[in-house]
Design a protein that fits this description.
Strand order of the largest sheet of chain A: 2-5-10-6-13-14-15-16
Distance between the termini of chain A: 24 Å
Structural class of chain A: alpha/beta
Oligomer: homodimer
Strand content of chain A: 15-25%
Radius of gyration of chain A: 20 Å
Largest interface: A-B, 55 and 55 residues
Order of helices and strands of chain A: EEEEEEEEEEEEHEHEHHHHHHHEHEH
Number of strands of chain A: 16
Largest sheet of chain A: 8 strands, mixed
Number of helices of chain A: 11
Shape of chain A: globular
């Protein structure tokens, strides 16, 4: 199979939006910036635009490399590029850092124009619909009346789903990958522990750690370690780490004994070194709040009735965070409405993280669907 | 069904052991105390003794009430008492707080005779086999040559399993409930996050928080919240909490929004108010280390070959911490050896915590097995 190639060097752009935006919470953003990247060329009919929405810890840098950093490969580079499933020879692809993020778009670490200091915990909380509305503003700016495709995995898939309800006339295809129509109590509980780790870190200072010159590194590290467990498949963890010992024998102490501990510490430390804790809080809360069926009195089919997009819903058998059963709730709601939906359940072993992996079957499904998208 | 009655008022006892004990780690305990309780009467033949081993957060107070506290019902009172599945009219039951515990037995908060100060993190780490050896010392003291039954759930079940290997001639029946022959990488990973929450709490002071007049309350709270998620069934959480909101509507903040958050905070706060953090560390590490098959080069059947006990292995379908598949590993190893084992898989909805619940089918299985135990 031709796996295509990377798009190569790319550069982020920034857009300023000065029309105030009323958020789902009732709060108002007076103005904001969004950082984004584009790959490929928008055709004359402006009919080949694809929006890639990012998940909890993602950003606008979906594919390619930044010239100043050879380690900067985009988080979904394996799927985007010439000849890749999301083919830059066919599509014009847009990645955007969501409002409230920490990769250049306006977020909690940005300066609050009212106080002249970082927003911190005064930054308004986000709902998925707020991101969709800001992404629509970006589409307006780019002259994109309707997206050929809106797609994403996990929280990104929830944005794609939300797009089909909020702007049904502006989405022709939605790819909803490894997502769920709403979190379960267990999902919320894991988010809660992660947030509590950050909120109770003495260095958090009520979210105003920027002003205190501190950083809730311990809390964010724990949050990420816990998150990681839920991203990986149970059997995958056993195959990859099992009960392997770091030093071959028990040392009877609390330093790293098992390889899996070493892995988690590394992931936690790395993440806590660059991600903003307030953004992490905000992203997990947006996940908690997501529940488009609330608008249909809990009836997801009723909420999705207004969607006119065609759907590809994809789930992974080893994903216990958002299991295939959760994707099927979306599929069943669409089928109930007689809407156009394809469903693929894939046997990738990588748990929730499968959506990021270059699994041949998974990529073949995405490729086959996108190849049929008419421009 | 007759569900029997509580044993009523009980009182703990304490035993001092002054013969040094070499631990699995190589460390030596010069002397130690064990706190224990007994229910029922040891018969003349001393053939009716039952050892109940406790799990991560358990202790010696298995059943009945303490006279000074009307809220002190033992943690397994629903199964122990006259006419109950573990019938005090038939059996003499012993509950013991494990060495390293925080309910009266020698543990990290006890005074280290060498320094005259609390042991803190100098307290040696425990392996399950160490607990079994100390429990054997207690059996010697009580004049119990062989237990009619050794039983427990979760980490308690692991102790029962270990008893059958370490002292095969001293156990006639082992009830291994909601246990596993060893932790998976995912199990270890959850323990690791819990430990890291405690170890990185600034109030932990390397385990010598007693001397600093502090307490890693934040870390222990997080550890317990996380533990709780793994003790409950996923569907049970959805049925009990779902996405119910505390105040009926989103408040767009980080205070409690969902009922499940309120529940977890309550559980975490309560636990952190009385449990010793060093004991929590030590108990989770003993879980990590448990792997009797290591002695048989990874072959569990080889390790269990020396056991002469009869087994009842019990698992719960909703338990994703130690799923029925893990219990079946024990059953299959015993069957491979042609050993006497009964297996019951029960449809209790309470996840791992099912072993503590008065589910009628579960109790009927335990009752039927124990009724047939010949004294």
């Amino acid at each position: 199979m031709d796996t295509g190639s990377s798009i190569g060097l790319v550069a982020p752009q920034s857009a300023h939006f000065s029309t105030p935006l009323t958020l789902r919470s009732g709060a108002m953003m007076p103005a904001f910036d969004l950082v984004y990247e584009t790959y490929g060329t928008l055709n004359a009919a402006k009919s080949n635009a694809v929006l890639v929405c990012h998940a909890l810890s993602g950003h606008h840098h979906v594919a390619g490399l930044h010239a100043d950093n050879p380690d900067s490969l985009g988080w979904w580079d394996n799927i985007v590029g010439p000849g890749r499933p999301l083919d830059t020879d066919k599509f014009f692809i847009v990645g955007v850092n969501n409002l409230g993020g920490c990769h250049g778009s306006t977020g909690p670490s940005s300066i609050n124009p009212v106080t002249g200091k970082p927003w911190g915990s005064d930054f308004p909380l986000m709902a998925v619909v707020d991101w969709v509305r800001t992404q629509a503003r970006l589409a307006d700016l780019l002259g994109i009346e309707s997206w050929a495709v809106v797609m994403g995995g996990s929280l990104g898939g929830m944005q794609a789903l939300r797009w089909t309800i909020t702007f049904p006339e502006r989405v022709r295809h939605a790819l909803v990958i490894a997502a769920a129509p709403k979190l379960t109590a267990q999902n919320i509980a894991f988010n809660d522990v992660a947030r509590q780790a950050i909120l109770t870190d003495p260095d958090f200072h009520g979210g105003h750690y920027y002003a205190h010159g501190t950083y809730p590194q311990r809390g964010l590290r724990l949050a990420r370690m816990l998150g990681h467990i839920t991203y990986l498949g149970d059997q995958q963890m056993d195959q990859r780490f099992g009960r392997e010992l770091r030093n071959g024998a028990f040392s009877f102490g609390y330093d790293v004994e098992f390889e899996v501990e070493s892995y988690l510490h590394h992931q936690g430390d790395k993440f806590a070194g660059f991600f903003d804790a307030n953004t992490y809080l905000l992203m997990t809360r947006a996940l908690d709040y997501f529940d488009p069926a609330r608008e249909g009195n809990g009836d997801l089919a009723a909420a999705l009735k207004k969607a006119s997009a065609r759907f590809l819903v994809t789930a992974f058998s080893s994903d216990w965070r958002f299991s295939p059963a959760r994707s099927k709730e979306i599929v069943h709601a669409l089928l109930k409405n007689g809407q156009d939906v394809s469903y693929a359940e894939l046997d990738c072993p990588y748990g929730h993280d499968s959506f990021l992996m270059p699994d041949p079957d998974y990529h073949a499904v995405i490729r086959a669907y996108l190849d049929r998208v008419k421009l």
